[in-house]
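Question (not urgent): is this output format expected?
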Amino acid sequence: MKAFTVSAVVFTVLVAGVAAAQQPPVQQTPAKPLAAPAAQSAVKPAAAPAPEAKFPEGARFAFLNIQRIAAESAEGKASSTRLEQLRAKKATDLNDKNKQVESLQAKQKSSVMSDDARLQVQRDIDKLQVEIQRTTQDAQQELQDMQNELQLEFQRKIAPIIQQVATERSIQMLFSQGDSGLVWADAGLDLTAEVIRRFDTVAAASKAPVAPAPIKK
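Got this back:
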């Protein structure tokens, strides 16, 4: 195969809105315990995963699930963790400022407070609310910037892996399952699992500690 181009290899990381983190958690009704199974119903062992379908011999077309690579690969999981940690930190900062506003609002309702003091508290509340608005905008921009950075880094790392697999298989055309309008294809044409394995192997090798060179006597 003379040429192979990986274009627009993009993964999607779902980022919960920062403002949504300020909402109280939804109370869930605890599930009722299941009835004990009959004595004759022994617990069956988990079924072994189905073996991967064999790549059709001589096939020159294949497809990938980019979203699955992002969700299941070590690099994709690490990126999602970094993004979630930043989102959680920004949400905590906003929650702290909101608590300050609530505290001042409660103080403002005090009947023993003078008009001047109440006016000063209102100024403090207004100032905090402006800070909250700016902090929210800054947090959203920072999250978007990190997401863009991680997407580009993911693309840079996964592109040579995809090209290597395609070259070895003599693939002439490789489709993205989520973007190609693919309705049906032989399961053996799905190279997603193979790309994930190689991607994880390369990532692990790059992070392995390098043994120090022996000291020459």
